[in-house]
Amino acid sequence: MLLYQGTSKEFVSETTKNAIVDTLVSSFKRQMGYGPSEPERRSWQNSLRAMALVVSESGLKNHGVGIEYQLPGSSKRLDFMITGLSVDKKKEAVIVELKQWEKTEPGDGDKVVTFVGQRERDVLHPSVQVGNYRQYLSDQLVALHEGETSIRLSACSYLHNYSLEKEDPLFEEKFKAVVAKNPVFSKDDVDKLVDYLNGLIPVGDDGSVIDEVVQSKAKPSKKLLDEIHRVVKEDSRYVLLDEQIIAYNRIVAEVKRSAKTGEKAAVIIRGGPGTGKSVIALNVMGELSKLGHNTHYVTGSKAFTETIRKILGTRGAQQVKFFNSYMAAEAGAIDVMVCDEAHRIRKTSNNMYTKKDKRSNKSQLEELFDASKVAVFFIDDRQIVRPDEIGSSALIAEFAKAHGIRLYECDLTAQFRCNGSDAFINWVNHTLAIEVTANPFWEASNPYEFKIFGSPEELEKAIHAKVEEKATARMSAGFCWKWSDPDSSGNLLDDVVVGDWKRPWDAKPGAGRLAKGIPPAALWAYDPNGIGQVGCVYTAQGFEFDYIGVIIGKDLVYRSDQGWVGVKEESCDSMVKRSKDKFVDLVKNTYRVLLTRGMKGCYVYFMDEETRKFFESRITK
């Protein structure tokens, strides 16, 4: 999507005549089927007027201009792009990120804090943001891939309401390198911005370069694919063993076969907690990227997706998507789609926020198959924890067979989590009456540590002790307490209350500004500072730690005369509570997920006494 395309002279003229916003609004309605928000209109009015003055001052009259260009395969849009030729007639394009900020405060990592959207928020430093856009386009558009005839891309930001202060947060030492590569210009730097643009694009291009950008085919560059392979292969956490290697080799072979014959294919890899599904998935992505295949890593969990993006780095993150990212995808656009946590596939990608004209009449599974040439599904049929999750190996296999898609299925059985103890997983399944296994009792002498504590204080102390020993560990709990927004200072509220013990949940998604040291929800499992909060199944699922602490609430209790009983009144998970006949099964799956996150140990506190006694009765001393 591109809302405006024209020459620099046309852009300045339309803005001077106060017509540019009307042009953008009409284009937006035509392409989106609804109008832009009032804040977006005001942003265009203020920022584009400031940018038009810069372009006019620069004397750039015969250059290409693009406004609100949507990055391919993303919902993100560039504010402004201007194109032209260098002194030696090389094709050039410059991204300009426009900001209405007036001041900033220091933030954690690559962020600063500013007032936006009616409150103080953590936001990316503008040089980081526009640098990411620059890298994304360079990696994704063939016209911008490095080569003799390619377009050279530069990027900067223009904060047209911003006056720099002494020791300004935007110019902290940690931002020195990124600002040098992607400069920041304030309202007092108009002359510098004019010189910057004239130095890059002194010669007009009649708008031909912006045409090339807009019409360019989207395909990941070799450098991007090589980078993904390097990141995965250099990380010792992702070494494959035994049957993992067999599954990996079969997936790679199926992809090579499909590439040669043009035949669509599907691979289903089934495995319980700790069988290494995600390790295989990352290795597959790395190897297939090295071989030049456009490979996407796809999940249904924001926390899991953001963590994979963090692992792969800013560049590799471009290839990591959500299950609902393919509603309008071109058929067969993705060579290989690696669907991790496939049990989280939903009936449809539509939700309450999907505009009427953008709604899909396809199932989410059909969208995934249509967009890919080879689809690989890593799945655990017993990890469905929401009623709208329908992913199952049977459903996927049925779809593939019905549509004549070549299918290969594989089962993983060896446990690489829980200290290699198949017995622990089996015992959890048996005790929760999920399935009958050969391990109805837990042997206390087993090297895997399973401990029941008499209070949440004792449980937390044990978890923190493991962290002090340099182990990874987290506290988690059933969804039995409300999940509050942070206060005005960004501090989390103590929602999880057991007697006198009080702790906050991890940060809510989209919580806005967070106090220093509090990680966003999507990175709770990955960031060491997550140890200060309690995680729920939605932030813990898909991750593993050395030790996991679990508070088992009163939403699931054991009664000797009834067996397992679900107590909806004790649950704060509104989605699960609405499930009429699946509540007990979903809550069982929730605790199964939490109890099996630890590789070396699982520590538990039971809020219900009879439930604790039942678990203790299933342990042999």
Characterization of this structure:
The chain is an alpha/beta fold and 621 residues long. 35% of the residues lie in helices and 22% in strands. The model has no long low-confidence stretch (mean pLDDT 92). The protein is globular. It starts with a strand and ends with a strand. It has 3 domains: 2-215, no CATH class; 222-412, Rossmann fold (3-Layer(aba) Sandwich), CATH 3.40.50; 418-620.
Largest sheet: 6 strands, mixed
Count the domains: 3
The span between the termini is 65 Å
Total beta strands: 26
Flag low-confidence runs: none
Which range best describes the helical content: under 10%, 10-25%, 25-40%, 40-55%, 55-70% or over 70%? 25-40%
Q: Tell me the β content.
A: 15-25%
Number of helical regions = 19
Based on CA inertia axes, which overall geometry fits?
globular
Rounded mean pLDDT is 92
Adjacency order of strands in the biggest sheet: 1-2-3-4-8-9
